[in-house]
Fold each of these.
Amino acid sequence: MAPIPTPPAEPQDNPDGYVGLDAAHAERLARRRGWTTVRSLPPGAIITMEYRPGRLNFEVQDGRVSRAWRG
């Protein structure tokens, strides 16, 4: 039987620290801190809720991050 893959470790980074930042700056900062995927979404966007290690989600309103969460 094949071994169960181990998901990659996520950055030890608090998503709340991105709230209020300019969206483009927040994305660059997140990538520098090790997030492999950064997803910017408009408020109320319909998204799938699967958890993806290494992904950081931003809700962006008026060019600023209004909410940030893992996965």
Amino acid sequence: MDVFVLGAWLLTAGLGGYLATVWVRHGGLRQRTPGVTRLPLWLVLGHVALAVAGVAAWTAYVVGGVRSSAWAACAVVLIVAAFGVMMLLRWLPSSGRHSHGGATAERHFPLTAVVAHGTTAGATVLLVLLVVLGKA
């Protein structure tokens, strides 16, 4: 099951990498003016950096059997999920002040990729929690 969770996490990371590539390719790194982008740089980079740290901790658990790494991965994946939900809520269409930037990078995200990333992320969080709590 541990290796299956790692596979799910890597699939989620691959889909997230695709979304990050779309975001960067359409100028996401250059959108710094307030009100232009819905996804601030700190949120995107924090989500990505923590996700990489979580995968590394889970890999350490799978390869080395270090139980504390599994708990660390569990904590990190919950924070990553919270950042992901914040990004999703900011990405959804609205009439707020951030909705006036017509050509924001995040508007180029394919809906299917966002849904696939969110679905696999949700499954990954659930699987990590089940494995870690099941071995407590």
Amino acid sequence: MWDPGTQPFNSVITTFVFSVYIVSDSFGSNDHTSTSLSWTMALAGLLIALLAPVVGQWADRSGHRISTLKWLTWALALVSGCLFFVQARASYLLLGLVLLGLGTVISDVGSALYNGLLDEVAAGGKVGRISGFGWGLGYMGGIIALLVIYIAWIQPDVGWFGVTSANGMDIRVSMLFCAAWILLLTLPTFLILRDRPRTAGVPGTGLVGAYAQLGRSVAGLWRIHRGIVVFLIASALFRDGLNGVFQFGGPIAKQTFGFTSAQVLIFGIAANLVAGVSTIVFGLLDDRIGPRRVIIGSLIILIAIALAVFWLHDGGAKVFWVLGMAMCAFVGPAQSASRSYLARVCPQGMQGEVFGLYATTGKAVSFLAPLLFGLFITMGRLIGGGDNNQYWGILGIAVVLLAGLLAMIPVKDTAH
């Protein structure tokens, strides 16, 4: 329930609704708002890289993984609700970006702790299907949340409780809905799961001392579990590309293929549905053929589809519906299989720490997809001119996915 419970922060806030709202004309010029958003996400990525592994390590050693996750989840709900105060005015851009960046840090650090619990709740031989089921439920949660928001406030001129789009009120009320959703749906997680007692003989450590221990842990992983380090590097690359697919899918749909804002939201609902179903199905396949093969196969297909989006950019909305849905069918399985692989090879007692490193490495190169996306758009402008070169950015994402694919090839398969 934590997957679907926290999904609105990803699907509603950072992807299809609030992030589109914060870069709208109400907050300034397109270049200014987009650049400000990119710098905010870069700074958030840096903080996640610094915090995620040591928080995970501290939670492992102190025996407070569940309670730490609970407080982070409640903080995420609070930040989401505070987005209500971001009015559709340029003077509120900074507030919106600060809250969005803070929520991103909380969400990713919490996800690192949550992913580390996978081996505790999944019996042997079922890691893949449990990971896929959870991830798939997350997408389903995104579908329902997006549908409610669309029907209640985005689509009608006057929504529930008399809410209109004046001063961004329809978007702002949606943020209150997301906060309530996060609190209520994650409640079963914290009613059922309990902290395990700290392992006897393992000393606790403060967050400051955790950094020294982090260095020793990385060195130890390299000496004893070198394959984990190699996988962390590979996953950092391809996960950044996978995030780029969702992060920039909305702008490409709107600016290149002519979608309206409402159509982007409908596309987001369909995208979550396709991704959710495919992730659950591929979760079963994960246990049969192993997560490494699921990841490599998904990356190959995603690269091919990305190239098709570039070459067929003049095809209109129907083309993007087909290709976009095809991409969504393989993003989720690759993400789920990634955490499934790590859960299988993670040393006992190091789950929070290793998944903290997983979050850290994922953010260590999080600038790549946005950077290459922008660079390829600039290249397209230099080659073809004009102001609508958004579709060139998909090539930048394809490059990141290709780098992740090449880095994943030497990674050894794991027993499944």
Amino acid sequence: MANAFFSDLLATISERGRTLLRRGDASGTRRDADGLLELCGALLSGRGEASGTAMAREVLDLYRELDAAGRRAFFEGLVHFFGPDRERLSKAIEQWRATPSDEDASALHFASEPRRQELIRRLNRAPGGTGDLVNMRADLLGMMNGHTDLAALDRDVSHLLSSWFNRGFLVLRRIDWSTPANILEKIIRYEAVHEISDWDDLRRRIDPVDRRCYAFFHPAMVDEPLIFVEVALTETIPGAIAPLLAVDRQHLPIAKARTAVFYSISNTQRGLGGISFGSFLIKQVVEELRRELPKLDSFVTLSPVPGFMAWVKQDKDLPLSDEDREMLKRLDDPKWFENPETAALLRSVLEPLAAHYFLRARTPKGRLIDSVARFHLGNGARLERINWLGDLSPKGMRESAGIMVNYLYRLDDIEKNHEAYANDGEVVASSAVKKLLKGEGRRLLDMRLS
């Protein structure tokens, strides 16, 4: 109710401002990047609340009319013409050097702020402005693509979005079959890990007694889930995704549930890339589930390994013999996993290779290669288990040869694991994973096959 009232109030202010702008012949604004930049300059020059809100809405509306070239020109203009006020900054620097007091340091800080940051704040006052700015940053990220000329603008936008999408503003909501249809439709559309094929598939994931779905929302984007997680309640830790998503599976009585499995986490807003909510989401969902189901004693993921096969194909320094490399050619057969002998031989190579991928392999900058691993290990999870042929979907086979992993969130160890990874780059892993490293993994496999 309060959000709706506030939105209506802003819309009323904006409409009154539009009336004032029309009377002032604002319709003469050029509808290209240069005209839009002029309007931004006018917005920064200082107006009343009504006309300023309306002008902000006008800027956002005109931006949406620009084509890709116009949007890039607009972004370049924000970089070149809306930086810090150089004269004011020079004076602040001189004052600081003369008398380096706390007051002068504060003045220097504010003088160094680019004018585009205040512009973005004013644009955010428009009705629907927050969502439009998130979409605008998605465009910006798409245009950067390794280029650095727009990096300063992206730093300013992401700095402000990080403040506005601070955890304190986010609201956790459970998604179930009673959730409004427009939000459910977005859950289907945004699912990024295991595609939701239709409404019946969605219902199987959120409606049964042993299934949960939670999402974070922001008060300024009440119908837009920012990130959501799908949870399966099981008796034990699963090693494959198909049984969890099966159409004809047996529902688990809730009294038997001992494990909460986070099997899909999807970010929905590309414009919020780099602004992480996932760690907060998992921790809060764990607390929600513990309150509801105190008998739960294990919290794990069943996660994809999206970078594994790309690494196998591109890395020339893999710990492989010539015989191993020859064996990997069998992966070219799309049905290799249906042949038990071939699958066993490939397992003897790929499982130790997967252990090396997590425990030893790094990017040139020293980071873990896999983005999912960086996320969970950085949040304090333990790499618990590597699951052979856990995902037989075309996507799973293409990206990871079907391998999935479990990350275990043991609440007493989360902080310790996080510190080990953040400070020393240590991957906290179970003994079972460590034993899969080359040599030891082969011996274990031979024992299983004998």
